[in-house]
Specification:
The chain has about 475 residues and is an alpha/beta fold. The protein has three domains: about 5-155 and about 280-340, FAD/NAD(P)-binding domain, CATH 3.50.50; about 170-280, FAD/NAD(P)-binding domain (3-Layer(bba) Sandwich), CATH 3.50.50; about 355-465, FAD/NAD-linked reductase, C-terminal dimerisation domain (Enolase-like, domain 1, 2-Layer Sandwich). The chain is about 30% helix and about 25% strand. The chain has a five-stranded mixed beta barrel with strand order 1-2-3-4-5. Strands 7-14-8-9-10 form a five-stranded parallel sheet. It has a five-stranded antiparallel sheet with strand order 17-18-21-20-19, sandwiched between helices. Strand 4 and strand 5 (about 140-150) form a beta hairpin. The protein starts with a strand and ends in a 14-residue tail after the last helix.
Amino acid sequence: MSEQYDVVVIGGGPAGYPCAIRASQLGFKTACIDAWINKDSTPAFGGTCLNAGCIPSKALLESSELVHRAQHEFAKHGIGVGDVSVDLAKMQARKTEVSKALTGGIKQLFTASKVTGLFGTGKLLGNGQVEYKSHDGQTQVLSAKHIVIATGSEPVNLSKIAPFDGDRIVDSWGALDFTEVPKRLGVIGAGVIGVELGSVWSRLGAKVTILEALPGFLPMVDAAISKEALRHLTKQGLDIRFGAKVSGAKAGKKAVTVEFEQDGKAQTEEFDKLIVAVGRRPNTNGLNAEAVGVKLTERGFVQVDAHYKTSVPGIYAVGDVIGGAMLAHKGIEEGVALAEQLAGHHTQVNYNAVPSVVYTAPEIAWVGLSEEQAKAAGHEVKTGSGSFMASGRAKAMEQAAGTIKVISDAKTDRILGVHAVGPFVSELIAEAVVALEFAATTEDIALIMHAHPSLSETFHDAILLVDGRAVHAINKPKRA
């Protein structure tokens, strides 16, 4: 006899566990199944983000940035620390502790919200049933009115070019668990994951070469901002090569030999370790989705409508597995929105106001359209760029590098996008998200008082510069 639930969520990552919690809060009897197992063989909720992605990478980024600052910035503050040593094992242990604290917190939230958390796999059986198989092999059938697929994504494996071997050639998870700093590190892919991981190990002493097949850096970011960000990262020592198309990688006992073509010339490089960071693909392994009638797209994503309904009544999907921006916060919002829709609420996720962040130093963040995208969409645009060089707070922090750029519609004054590189722009971008969500104009933000001295003043300056109204920056000449 099957166990009866109102909602069964398959996947306990950033899309799945919030969906389960919110569903339970709304009165649904809810279960959440998650298959994640860490390398120490312990199961955990939180998916890739908390266990092998967002959180552990940010822990290492923070630690490595402190190393870099101690080596290169502290002396400017009058702080002498002598030779800076790195205990990588302790750094890695701290990273793991941070992740475990958060994944353990999900279990506590499940208990408090009366969600039944189940470690193991979920398989669609059709007719509102899910086969739950625990990690020790025991099976049970769960029945539910609503079944939610939130199985996330996994790193793309270039199996024919640079197959993962777990040692020399690794994915993003493996790159977070190095036990020693490689002298020569190669990275395939100069996207968000590639540059973040490259930054970590570069700060800790690795010579990092990033091979990117595309001709430019972060094409989704405003051209002026991506150009400035690239300049800062290159100055820090990252060797980023564009138009470099990798044709093969062979792991030996002591090194990885990588073959690639750049500018029409065949080239070869040797690295101690190679990270493959060329994107992520939907994880539907073992789900039995197509067998029960759930349609997938050509790229393997679960096909859904505007209300996250699949082709099978009673089965829904949210998060990375449905495509779009593969971001934890996007998955969270989708999971919560779906739970509320199941309860009859009217909810909507605004996909035009999804922030993105690269946690390098300086950070890169953006929301909405770039100037290039806005023009391509037919907007007549006006822009303003505020520099952190003019920020008293940034100078006091010894981090006065970067720019915030505002893109607005010249006819309506409505803000279309904000793109930035600089200190803590991961936090500053939230104000821009609010502005887009409320359809704010540049004048709306110009009238808002910002604390002095603060980094947020740079956003205010950028807003004022759109119309040549800044008093703490040199205004660009007005158009005729």
